[in-house]
């Protein structure tokens, strides 16, 4: 069965984006970049990765799921209506319509839990939960793995890692931790 991995950057105080949805406070350069790409190849927009010579094929995921706010980061200024062309892309939204140029993206108002459960039953590689926090809160019980790129920055507010998830403790097992000179720490967990 396929697994859902929440692979995301976050601040020391647990935010994945600023109050306005930006994530430019996170480190985009440093000794962490190469090893993270090697481990999670294909987790950058196709055109961006190829423009800097990064291969997107043969990564751990063949499907990416995200909420509208995460998807919308690439619109309109960045012209990324079809960001992960090398992956099957599913965007959950209840009120937005597909923008021009998004032919490779599936937009749905279907229940995220039911959708992910169905995806897990299909053949293929892993499923990447790209964001955001509200969707992660809805899918918390379906997430099999956490891969957290903890950045050495405090945001003081913004989009929490798991949105407004109600109090519901669940145990996780640390599988791997790697600290980089940049200050970024990759912490990987599996559901216990």
TrEMBL record:
Query: What species is given as this protein's source?
Result: Brachybacterium kimchii
Q: Which InterPro entries match?
A: DHFR-like_dom_sf, RibDG_C, Riboflavin_Biosynth_HTPR
One protein family per Pfam: RibD_C
Q: In what residue span(s) does the Bacterial bifunctional deaminase-reductase C-terminal domain sit?
A: 4-186
Specify the protein name. Dihydrofolate reductase family protein
Extract the SUPFAM superfamilies matched here: Dihydrofolate reductase-like
């Amino acid at each position: 069965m396929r697994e859902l991995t929440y692979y995301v950057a976050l601040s020391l105080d647990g935010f994945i984006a600023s109050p306005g949805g930006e994530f430019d406070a996170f480190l985009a350069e440093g000794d962490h970049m190469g090893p993270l790409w090697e481990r999670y190849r294909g987790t950058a927009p196709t055109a961006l990765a190829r423009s800097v010579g990064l291969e997107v094929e043969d990564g751990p995921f063949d499907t990416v799921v995200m909420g509208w706010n995460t998807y919308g980061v690439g619109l309109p200024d960045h012209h990324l209506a079809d960001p992960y062309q090398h992956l099957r892309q599913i965007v959950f939204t209840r009120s937005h319509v597909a923008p021009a140029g998004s032919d490779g993206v599936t937009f749905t108002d279907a229940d995220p839990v039911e959708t992910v459960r169905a995806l897990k039953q299909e053949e293929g590689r892993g499923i990447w939960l790209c964001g955001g926090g509200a969707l992660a809160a809805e899918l918390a019980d379906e997430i099999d793995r956490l891969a957290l790129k903890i950045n050495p920055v405090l945001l003081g507010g913004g989009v929490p890692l798991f949105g407004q998830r109600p109090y519901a403790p669940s145990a996780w097992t640390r599988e791997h931790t790697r600290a980089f000179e940049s200050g970024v720490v990759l912490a990987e967990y599996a559901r216990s």
